[in-house]
Amino acid sequence: MRSIELVLDPDAERAVRAAWEALVAADLPSMGRHTSETNAPHVTLTAGETLVVPSGFDAPLPPSIRPAGLLLFPAGPGRHVLGVSVVVDRPLAAFHEAVHRAAPGGVDTSLPGRWAPHLTLARRPRDVDLPRMLEVLSSVALPETLGVAGVRHWDGETTTVTPVS
To answer: Known Pfam families for this protein (predicted)?
Structure first.
């Protein structure tokens, strides 16, 4: 799978990583346990098997995003993905559409009108862990806005990241 992702500025990345680390410190599932060099807080704009690295976009990169509430996606029996939803304001919606014009072929759930932007906190935690995870995360507040640093193309087959300007 390939994806095109918004990446955060250093302050915003530190804030999300603090939430990851709070979960790790409580011995709970967390993206903070993934030690790959390419593991960084991000918002996936599109994902698909054949996405190319775009040469650019016909809409401006939003300078920031606004985190909202926690959300869950099903991830198999007794499991979910836990994330922080992101508000889709006009600048983010326009940029998201521009990404799809520059790199068509995204899966249905990443298309405009179907997309649920989020910052992943943990993949596949057990449902029984969710109450404790919520308790831990209630003590780690994210800022009202998170700065955006740029865009990257992730290729899961080669595990490479390519910055996109």
So the answer is: 2_5_RNA_ligase2
